[in-house]
Amino acid sequence: QVQLVESGGGLVQAGGSLTLSCAASGSFFRINVMGWYRQASGKQRELVAINTRSGTTNYADAVKGRFTISRDNAKNTVSLQMNSLKPEDTAVYYCNAQAQRSGTDYWGKGTLVTVSS
């Protein structure tokens, strides 16, 4: 089992920055992929950025060049630095982790990011 706790959401003006953090805890051998997804009101959950254990990253086109994902394997944490925020970035952001052995996906409860225009 993996428990994920997010922090760092809030209200920011367009053009501003926020950093989201997520810490994994629980009983697990190793986490393979950690990442962030988001779900805006009335829309489906979508990928924002992921980071594999080896350091490979992947970003949604909408956030490339503005968001940076980073990970600390020793601490089982993942962060998302969000710059040049736009109103369309407003969403609930969810931390995701995939356990290496089982392949099971785990989700945090989400943290709300609101970008005002």
In terms of topology, how is this protein built?
Elements: E1 2-7, E2 10-13, E3 18-26, E4 31-39, E5 46-52, E6 57-59, E7 67-72, E8 77-82, E9 91-99, E10 105-107, E11 111-116
Parallel strand pairs: 2-11
Antiparallel strand pairs: 1-3, 3-8, 4-5, 4-9, 5-6, 7-8, 9-10, 9-11
The oligomeric state is: single chain
Low-confidence stretches: none
* Form type: globular
Q: Helical region count?
A: 0
pLDDT averaged over residues: 95
Percentage of β-strand residues: over 45%
Task: Count every beta strand, where a strand is a DSSP E run of 2 or more residues.
Answer: 11
Please state the structural category. Answer: mainly beta
> What is the N-to-C order of secondary-structure elements (H for helix, E for strand)?
EEEEEEEEEEE
> Share of helix among residues?
under 10%
Radius of gyration computed on alpha carbons: 14 Å
